[in-house]
Structure formats: structure tokens, C-alpha cells
Amino acid sequence: MILTVTPNPSLDRTYEVPVLERGEVIRADGERMDPGGKGVNVSRAVAAAGRRTVAVLPLGGAPGALVADLLDAQGIEVAPVPVAGATRSNIALAEADGVLTKINAPGPELSAAEQELLLDAVRAHSADADWIACCGSLPRGLAPSWYADVVMRAHAGGARIALDTSGRALLEALRARPDVVKPNAEELAEAVARPLATVGDALKAAEEVRAMGAGAVLASLGADGQLLVSDTGAWFGSARVSTVRSNVGAGDASLAGFLIAGGTGPEALASAVAHGAAAVQLPGSVMPTPADLDPAAVTVTADIPLDRELTEPVS
């Protein structure tokens, strides 16, 4: 079982529009509603793979109830923590040419009592978990050290932690030594406070993040592939992708694939790359099923192309 923790979940509404024009009335060609948040997406990807997952998340108001219903419909066990504030609703405007404009609400502020209830829920469901995936931004009220507290409590109970967050929350959590962290290129550059122009730059940054406390680093480099750096070695993975439809949730699908495959070594990296590549070829934030995966399109090597320039360098 993979337990996910999403401190700031959302109800995501996506509207398909011909073109976005400021100040005009725009009629949508289509709309969809999905449960959102990085940890929620990891649970959705795990469930799509036919594996058991439990999603711990604070939920409040009508949007929170709808998030719980949508997750339940996808076969995900929900461990809700009731909060006084309403779960945030995010809006995405998808134009016909592929441009996506997102409006993300801040979300409710959690009280001290609600924060403790959230930690209690994680502890109550962690005994059966092979991995605990803590993902996303922290809501108002939670200190940047909150994830570090989760990591320490989880390790005290014998659980393994995968962490996908950024900024100060990531730096604080590294001191607690999470088992694996999953930054993208921008988050990796932010963690080491310098730009990344090549795969070699990303590898060096990942090694530094390990030195800060991460057991392993699974770094998403967008269209260029993924890096896995751990105490047993470093590997680079990439995949052939015919058509990119949406990269929303692709990193979350990658993390799910990594954990499903055991969360360590080149085989887990290959699974991560396969899941991420499948996700970008699906619409919106749809998570891939086993039928969507193409393992033959994936290449994993210890011969890392250090001089390869990143398609989207981070300044």
C-alpha cells in the first residue's frame, strides 16, 4: 500500500476555450472536474495501476466533500481530516493551441488542532504502508518545518518517505533525511541556488541535495528525461514520446511509477520514466493505466550524457 499525504488538496475545474481574451465573455467548448493536489495525483496513478492506496488530506466544505466523492469513484481509500475552511477550488483554462492558464487558490488556513489531526491521520494509516508520499505545497498555518516533522515521525515508526515539495519546505525536510525526494529541474536549481544548463549540471545538483540529507534524488528534467542518484549509483532515463497532450500531473505519475516498482534502483527509474511518458500523452491530468505504458520506449543507462544541454535550461 502506498500512503499519500496532500496538505493542500484542491478541486480542479478545467475549461477548454478556443482562445483566452481578457475582458470578453468566453464560451467553453468543454469542462471537467478532478480531485487535485500532487499527493492526490500520486494516489490516482497508483490506483490506475491497480494497486492499493490511501490518501490522507484535509477536507472542508462542499468542495472537500466533492473531492472525497471523486476519489472514492476512482477506487482510492480516503482518510479525510475535517477542517473548518473550505477546500480550495482551482481553475485551468486550456486553449485550443495547447496554452494552459491556471488560477490556484491559496486554500484554507489550518489551525493548530487541525494540524495535529493531520499528523495523527498519517500515523494511524502508516503501519500498512510500503511508502509514504508527502507531496505539494503547504497550506497557510503550517510551518515550513511541517514536512520535516512528518519525516521524523514516519521514520520513528519504521516507514519510508518520498517527498515532493520545494523551497524552504524542502530544505527544512532534508535535515530529517527523507528516503527519496523528487524535484523537477526548477526546484533542483532552487535548492542549490544556481542555474542548470546541462544534464551534468543537474547530476551535480542532485548529488549536493543528497549531501544535504536526501537518501536518493529522483529528478524530473522535463522532455530530457529523469535522473536517479542514490548511494548505489546514478542513472539517466528517457523515453520516446510521439505526441505531448498535457504535462499536468506527469511528475506525480512518475513518482507513483517509481514507488510501485519498489522505489530504488534502475528498474524503479524505468517505471518512473514509463509512467511519466504515458501521462504526457493523455489529456488533462488523466493518469496512465498499465495498458498506456510502453516499456520498450524507455532507455535507462548509467552512462549519463553529462554534456547534453537541457531543452529548457533553468536560469
TrEMBL record:
UniProt keywords, alphabetically: ATP-binding, Kinase, Nucleotide-binding, Transferase
Cited InterPro entries: 1-PFruKinase, PfkB_dom, Ribokinase-like, Tagatose/fructose_Pkinase
Entry's EC annotation: 2.7.1.144
Top-level taxonomic group: Bacteria
Keyword Nucleotidyltransferase assigned: no
GO molecular function: tagatose-6-phosphate kinase activity
Keyword Glycosyltransferase: no
Domain Carbohydrate kinase PfkB stretches: 22-290
UniProt family annotation: Belongs to the carbohydrate kinase PfkB family.
NCBIfam families, per the entry: 1-PFK, pfkB
Descriptive protein name: Tagatose-6-phosphate kinase
Gene source species: Streptomyces cyanogenus
Phylogenetic classification of the source organism: Bacteria, Bacillati, Actinomycetota, Actinomycetes, Kitasatosporales
Annotated gene: lacC1
